[in-house]
Design a protein that fits this description.
mainly beta; 1 helix; 5-stranded antiparallel beta sheet; 2 domains
Length: 164
Amino acid sequence: MIESIPLPTLDDPVDAPFWAGCRHGQLLIQHCADCGRAHHPPRAMCPHCRADAFVWRPAAGTGRLWSYAVPNPPLLPAFAALLPYVVGVVELDDHPGLRLVGALAAPGASAIGGVDPAQVGIGAPVAVHFIAVTDDTTLPCWTLSTPTPAAIPAGTPASREDLS
């Protein structure tokens, strides 16, 4: 049984720059050196042109909740202490169509969680917030920004067309 939060492998050559950026408080996105397109998660080969050369560029670190879930009960026992917590899929403002998964955290928090699921809605604006979970592992999490009328409250059925 897994009793601690699963952590990423930090020395994998494909995504090591992503995790190094997180450790330094910077959200880096992999871009193909040939076609220039961005993609996430990082890959050893560009999914668009099949090149194998990449550059890493900083992202603005803002976006909107594309989807989210409130796991209850948690999949792993290590997450039970965090209940309730919210996991979001965030579409980045400066990379339309590119989505990252991460936990939501309260502004200024040093741990995942602390967000009332009732305050979360599809389309809500978010900003990246880095949380150090070990001495060498920092996770990109998301904090809710000022709510806007475009955000759809939790429990409201909606389609993506409602967000335009």
